[in-house]
Each structure stands twice: as C-alpha cells, then as structure tokens.
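Inverse folding, one chain.
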C-alpha cells in the first residue's frame, strides 16, 4: 500500500506542470514592474526568494516595488537583506536612505547616504538627498556643504544654487547668499 501512495505522489509531481524557477519568477516580477503591476511584482519576487534567498537583485527589486507602493518598512526589510548579502553595494544604502527620509528618519537617512558616498563615486543625487535631510534637521551648514558638492558635480544645476543661497540666508550669511 505504501508503494502505491509513493508511486501516486511521484506521478502527481512529475505530471503536474513544471515548476517555475527563481529566475522565471524574477523575470516575471521585472515584467510586472514595467507594467506598473507593483503588487504582482512583489508576489513574484517573494516566490523567487523562496527558491533563491541569496540573490541580491531579487531583494533590491522587491524593495523597489515596495517603495513604489510606499511600503517603506517592507522596503527597508528587503534592503537590509540585500545589504547583508552585499554590504559594498551603494544602491542598497541609497534606496534605504530614501525610505528613511520618507519616514522622517533624517539621521538614519544621512547615515545611509554617507555610506553610499563612501562606497561609490561622488553622486550629485546622493549629496542632494543628504543635504535635504540635513536641512530638515536645521543643519544649514551641512546642507550648504552638500549642495556645494552638488554644484561642483553639476555646475549647471540652477536649483542647487538657489537652495544653497536660501540656506545661507538661514545662517545669516547674506554676502554668501548672492
């Protein structure tokens, strides 16, 4: 009798449609993301993680889709796992910083943006995001320093000049606000 049960189980397993691989779920998630089906993408990325929990790209894309749905806590959890797998990937820290900024955890976001800059090349967007967090914390000198870096990287970015000038007014540096 037990041989019959085992044979039936094997028959069911082999005759059922073939199981999808982690890569197929990942690719399906990417496709759903491109079609703005973020919830469907999250489901596929979670299925991919069941089959392969060591792929940083799956965690990164899971986090991105959670971020797009404003699930910052879920995005941070996925990014924490991506960072655990590869602590030298600057984009994981950058995205986690964005999540923390949206949650008004400005000091946590500043730490992540600083780590991003430590790991990667000087990036104007990262300096800008870190500067905005510093401004939210009333650290106008820090904001000015970061926006000076933005200007050094992107000298034609006019908004950076005006925002830096506004911060110089905040610290009563009227001559420097010109």
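Residues assigned per position:
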């Amino acid at each position: 009798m037990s041989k019959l049960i085992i044979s039936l189980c094997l028959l069911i397993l082999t005759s059922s449609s073939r199981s999808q691989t982690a890569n197929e779920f990942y690719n399906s998630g990417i496709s759903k993301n491109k079609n703005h089906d973020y919830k469907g993408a999250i489901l596929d990325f979670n299925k991919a993680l069941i089959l392969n929990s060591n792929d940083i790209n799956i965690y990164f894309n899971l986090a991105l889709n959670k971020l797009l749905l404003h699930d910052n806590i879920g995005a941070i959890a996925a990014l924490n796992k991506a960072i655990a797998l590869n602590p030298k990937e600057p984009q994981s820290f950058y995205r986690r910083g964005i999540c923390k900024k949206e949650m008004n955890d400005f000091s946590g976001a500043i730490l992540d943006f600083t780590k991003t800059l430590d790991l990667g090349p000087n990036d104007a967007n990262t300096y800008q995001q870190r500067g905005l967090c510093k401004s939210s914390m009333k650290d106008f000198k820090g904001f000015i320093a970061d926006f000076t870096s933005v200007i050094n990287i992107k000298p034609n970015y006019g908004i950076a000049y005006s925002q830096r000038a506004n911060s110089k007014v905040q610290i009563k540096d009227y001559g420097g606000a010109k």
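The mean pLDDT is 85. The longest helix spans residues 2-15.
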